Amino acid sequence: MHLFIVYAHPSEQSLTREVRDVFIRGLQTAHHTFEMSGLYAIR
Fold first, then answer.
1. How many Å apart are CA 10 and CA 23, to the nearest integer?
2. How many CB atoms lie within 10 A of CB 23?
3. Phi/psi of residue 14, each to 5°?
């Protein structure tokens, strides 16, 4: 499965980022592919 992740949080030290990272590790473990768009990174 290929997923598109939209991530939006101004702080890189947030719980939201931790949840994102755990989710991505789960995707990688299951051999899924993904693209991610960080809305605060692209402004």
1. 19
2. 14
3. -105, 160
The alpha carbons of the chain give a radius of gyration, in whole angstroms, of 11
Does the structure show a pLDDT above 80 at 37? yes
| Among 2, 26, 6, 1, residue whose Cα is nearest residue 16 | 6
- With a pLDDT cut of 90, the percent of the chain lying above it is 77
Instruction: Say whether 22 sits in a helix, a strand or coil.
Output: helix
> CA separation (Å) from 29 to 11, 18, 32, 38?
26, 17, 8, 22
What is the reported pLDDT for 41?
Answer: 81
Contact in structure between 26 and 1 (CB atoms under 8 Å): no
Question: Domain limits of the chain?
Answer: 2-42
